[in-house]
Design brief:
Strand order of the largest sheet: 1-2-3-4-7-6-5
Order of helices and strands: EEEHHEHEEE
Helix content: 10-25%
Number of domains: 1
Oligomer: single chain
Radius of gyration: 15 Å
Strand content: 25-35%
Number of helices: 3
Protein backbone atom coordinates (compact mmCIF):
# COMPACT_ATOMS: atom_id res chain seq x y z
CA UNK A 1 0.00 0.00 0.00
CA UNK A 2 3.06 2.26 -0.15
CA UNK A 3 2.10 3.55 -3.58
CA UNK A 4 -1.68 3.26 -3.21
CA UNK A 5 -4.35 5.68 -2.05
CA UNK A 6 -7.81 4.47 -1.07
CA UNK A 7 -10.72 6.90 -1.43
CA UNK A 8 -14.17 6.48 0.08
CA UNK A 9 -17.36 7.76 -1.60
CA UNK A 10 -15.39 9.60 -4.27
CA UNK A 11 -17.39 11.78 -6.72
CA UNK A 12 -16.90 10.85 -10.37
CA UNK A 13 -16.25 13.36 -13.14
CA UNK A 14 -19.02 13.14 -15.75
CA UNK A 15 -19.89 15.58 -18.49
CA UNK A 16 -22.93 17.64 -17.54
CA UNK A 17 -22.99 16.43 -13.91
CA UNK A 18 -21.71 18.88 -11.32
CA UNK A 19 -21.53 19.13 -7.52
CA UNK A 20 -23.87 16.87 -5.61
CA UNK A 21 -25.37 15.50 -8.85
CA UNK A 22 -22.19 13.57 -9.65
CA UNK A 23 -22.33 9.81 -8.99
CA UNK A 24 -20.13 8.57 -6.13
CA UNK A 25 -18.21 5.31 -6.20
CA UNK A 26 -18.01 3.45 -2.88
CA UNK A 27 -14.28 2.62 -2.95
CA UNK A 28 -11.58 3.87 -5.31
CA UNK A 29 -8.00 2.59 -5.34
CA UNK A 30 -5.50 4.98 -6.95
CA UNK A 31 -1.87 4.26 -7.68
CA UNK A 32 0.22 7.21 -6.54
CA UNK A 33 3.52 8.41 -7.92
CA UNK A 34 4.69 9.78 -11.24
CA UNK A 35 2.94 9.26 -14.53
CA UNK A 36 -0.46 7.74 -15.15
CA UNK A 37 -2.42 7.06 -11.97
CA UNK A 38 -4.48 3.94 -12.67
CA UNK A 39 -7.68 3.56 -10.68
CA UNK A 40 -9.77 0.59 -9.65
CA UNK A 41 -13.39 1.33 -8.72
CA UNK A 42 -15.43 -0.88 -6.41
CA UNK A 43 -19.16 -0.65 -5.78
CA UNK A 44 -20.22 -2.27 -2.49
CA UNK A 45 -23.78 -3.51 -1.86
CA UNK A 46 -25.73 -5.52 0.68
CA UNK A 47 -27.04 -8.97 -0.25
CA UNK A 48 -29.75 -9.77 2.24
CA UNK A 49 -33.21 -10.11 0.72
CA UNK A 50 -34.87 -11.75 -2.26
CA UNK A 51 -34.73 -8.68 -4.54
CA UNK A 52 -31.01 -8.05 -3.88
CA UNK A 53 -30.11 -9.90 -7.11
CA UNK A 54 -32.34 -7.54 -9.14
CA UNK A 55 -30.69 -4.54 -7.49
CA UNK A 56 -27.18 -5.99 -7.94
CA UNK A 57 -27.61 -6.10 -11.73
CA UNK A 58 -29.75 -2.95 -11.86
CA UNK A 59 -29.20 0.63 -13.02
CA UNK A 60 -27.72 1.83 -9.72
CA UNK A 61 -25.20 -1.00 -9.30
CA UNK A 62 -23.57 -3.05 -12.05
CA UNK A 63 -25.06 -1.04 -14.90
CA UNK A 64 -23.26 2.10 -13.65
CA UNK A 65 -20.03 0.46 -14.86
CA UNK A 66 -21.52 -0.63 -18.19
CA UNK A 67 -22.88 2.86 -18.90
CA UNK A 68 -19.51 4.43 -18.08
CA UNK A 69 -20.78 6.43 -15.10
CA UNK A 70 -18.27 4.49 -12.98
CA UNK A 71 -14.75 3.50 -14.14
CA UNK A 72 -15.22 5.45 -17.36
CA UNK A 73 -11.55 5.39 -18.28
CA UNK A 74 -10.74 1.89 -17.10
CA UNK A 75 -11.25 -1.63 -18.41
CA UNK A 76 -11.82 -3.36 -15.06
CA UNK A 77 -13.69 -2.73 -11.82
CA UNK A 78 -15.16 -4.60 -8.87
CA UNK A 79 -18.44 -5.40 -7.17
CA UNK A 80 -18.26 -6.20 -3.45
CA UNK A 81 -21.28 -7.97 -1.98
CA UNK A 82 -21.88 -7.88 1.77
CA UNK A 83 -23.64 -11.19 2.45
CA UNK A 84 -26.07 -10.68 5.33
CA UNK A 85 -28.30 -13.73 4.91
CA UNK A 86 -27.66 -17.31 3.79
CA UNK A 87 -24.06 -18.06 2.73
CA UNK A 88 -21.61 -16.77 0.15
CA UNK A 89 -22.02 -20.02 -1.82
CA UNK A 90 -25.81 -19.51 -1.98
CA UNK A 91 -25.39 -15.91 -3.15
CA UNK A 92 -22.78 -16.90 -5.75
CA UNK A 93 -25.34 -19.31 -7.25
CA UNK A 94 -28.08 -16.65 -7.16
CA UNK A 95 -25.84 -14.10 -8.85
CA UNK A 96 -24.71 -16.61 -11.49
CA UNK A 97 -28.35 -17.40 -12.30
CA UNK A 98 -29.21 -13.68 -12.27
CA UNK A 99 -26.43 -12.88 -14.71
CA UNK A 100 -27.42 -15.73 -17.03
CA UNK A 101 -31.03 -14.51 -17.15
CA UNK A 102 -30.01 -10.89 -17.86
CA UNK A 103 -27.31 -11.36 -20.54
CA UNK A 104 -28.82 -8.82 -22.94
CA UNK A 105 -29.78 -6.29 -20.25
CA UNK A 106 -26.27 -6.20 -18.77
CA UNK A 107 -24.48 -6.43 -22.13
CA UNK A 108 -22.67 -9.69 -21.30
CA UNK A 109 -19.91 -10.23 -23.87
CA UNK A 110 -20.28 -13.08 -26.34
CA UNK A 111 -17.62 -15.77 -26.22
CA UNK A 112 -16.82 -15.18 -22.54
CA UNK A 113 -18.30 -17.34 -19.76
CA UNK A 114 -21.17 -15.62 -17.97
CA UNK A 115 -19.71 -16.18 -14.54
CA UNK A 116 -16.13 -17.48 -14.41
CA UNK A 117 -13.91 -18.07 -11.37
CA UNK A 118 -11.18 -15.40 -11.25
CA UNK A 119 -8.59 -17.99 -10.23
CA UNK A 120 -7.40 -16.01 -7.22
CA UNK A 121 -5.76 -17.94 -4.38
CA UNK A 122 -6.07 -17.30 -0.66
CA UNK A 123 -8.57 -17.51 2.16
CA UNK A 124 -11.93 -16.26 0.89
CA UNK A 125 -10.59 -15.40 -2.56
CA UNK A 126 -11.50 -18.68 -4.26
CA UNK A 127 -15.08 -17.41 -4.50
CA UNK A 128 -14.11 -14.35 -6.57
CA UNK A 129 -15.77 -14.50 -9.99
CA UNK A 130 -15.47 -12.37 -13.08
CA UNK A 131 -17.78 -11.29 -15.87
CA UNK A 132 -17.14 -9.35 -19.07
CA UNK A 133 -19.53 -6.70 -20.39
CA UNK A 134 -19.71 -4.69 -23.60
CA UNK A 135 -19.97 -0.92 -23.28
CA UNK A 136 -22.00 0.04 -26.36
CA UNK A 137 -22.26 3.76 -25.45
CA UNK A 138 -18.68 4.17 -24.29
CA UNK A 139 -15.36 4.50 -26.08
CA UNK A 140 -13.87 1.55 -24.18
CA UNK A 141 -15.32 -1.54 -25.78
CA UNK A 142 -15.55 -3.79 -22.69
CA UNK A 143 -15.23 -3.83 -18.92
CA UNK A 144 -14.28 -6.82 -16.79
CA UNK A 145 -16.01 -6.93 -13.41
CA UNK A 146 -14.56 -8.84 -10.46
CA UNK A 147 -17.27 -10.02 -8.03
CA UNK A 148 -16.20 -10.61 -4.42
CA UNK A 149 -18.59 -11.64 -1.64
CA UNK A 150 -17.81 -11.04 2.03
CA UNK A 151 -19.67 -12.99 4.74
CA UNK A 152 -21.35 -10.71 7.34
CA UNK A 153 -23.91 -13.23 8.65
Amino acid sequence: MEHMEVLDDSPQALAGRFGKKRPRIDIEFVRTGRGIRPRFHVEAKRLYRSDSVNEYFGPRWLQMFISGEYAAGWSSAGMLGYVQSDTCAVWLRRLAAGLASRRVEICASEGFPDWAPAGWQGVGLDGVHTSLHDRPLHNLSQIQIFHLLVDFT
